[in-house]
Write a structure and sequence with these properties.
The protein is an alpha/beta fold. Helix content is 27%, strand content 24%. The protein contains four helices and eight strands, in the order αββββαβαβββα. The chain has helices spanning 17-25, 88-100, 113-121, 164-182, and strands spanning 31-36, 45-52, 54-59, 80-82, 106-109, 126-130, 141-145, 152-158. The strands form two sheets. A five-stranded mixed β-sheet has the order 5-4-6-3-7. It has a three-stranded antiparallel β-sheet with strand order 1-8-2. It is elongated, with a radius of gyration of 19 Å.
C-alpha cells in the first residue's frame, strides 16, 4: 500500500471495539480493524473480514484428541490458560462452556495469544485460542477444534465519507480477507 501512496503515514493503535468506535466517531481514525462483538452504532459501517474458529491448544503429548473428551467432567482438572475475561475470545469461550454446562475458570491469565501458546507448549495447561486459515499450531502444541462455539469475528469499521487513501486501504483489506477465506 505504501508503494501506491508513498507519502502515507500509518498509526496503529491496539484498542478494543468500543474504543475503535469512539475513535471513528470522533474522526481520530479513518478505518478500524477489530474484533467484532454486537452491533455497531449508527453512522459506523462495518464489513466482516474473517471469522476465526476457537480452538483449545493442548500439549502435543496430551491424550485428548477432541475437546469433548475434556468435558467428561463438568469441571476439567487441567489449568485453563486464557486472555483476560473482558477479551472477546474469552467471552465466546465462556459462553460456549455455559451452553455445555461446563465450569472451567482461568488459572493462568496472559496478555497475548503468543504467550498463551508458549505456556501450553511448556506444559502449564490448556489454552483457548484461534488459528488463522492455513496456520499450524506452534511446536509442542496441538489444536482441538471447538465446532459448537461461536467464532471470533474480525471486521473493518469506518465512517463515510472515507478519504481516498483510507478507501484504498479498506478495499485492499477486504480483498486480502477474501483471499484468506478462499484459502
Amino acid at each position: 500500500h505504501r508503494r501506491k501512496f508513498p507519502g502515507m503515514t500509518l498509526q496503529l493503535r491496539d484498542v478494543n471495539q468500543s474504543d475503535a468506535q469512539r475513535l471513528l466517531l470522533k474522526q481520530e481514525v479513518d478505518v478500524a480493524i477489530t474484533e467484532a462483538e454486537g452491533a455497531t452504532p449508527s453512522g459506523i459501517k462495518s464489513s466482516v473480514l474473517i471469522t476465526l474458529p476457537l480452538v483449545l491448544l493442548v500439549p502435543a503429548d496430551h491424550p485428548a484428541t477432541t475437546a469433548r473428551q475434556l468435558w467428561k467432567r463438568a469441571d476439567p482438572a487441567e489449568t485453563l490458560i486464557s486472555l483476560p475475561a473482558d477479551e472477546v475470545i474469552s467471552k465466546l469461550f465462556q459462553q460456549g462452556l455455559d451452553r455445555l454446562r461446563v465450569k472451567w475458570t482461568t488459572g493462568i491469565e496472559v496478555s497475548s495469544l503468543d504467550l498463551l501458546a508458549a505456556y501450553v507448549g511448556a506444559g502449564f495447561g490448556i489454552g483457548v485460542s484461534v488459528l488463522a486459515p492455513g496456520a499450524k499450531p506452534p511446536p509442542k502444541v496441538k489444536a482441538l477444534p471447538l465446532p459448537s462455539f461461536e467464532p471470533l469475528v474480525i471486521a473493518a469499521l469506518w465512517k463515510e465519507p472515507l478519504p481516498p487513501l483510507a478507501k484504498s486501504f479498506l478495499d485492499e483489506a477486504l480483498r486480502h480477507a477474501q483471499e484468506l477465506r478462499r484459502g
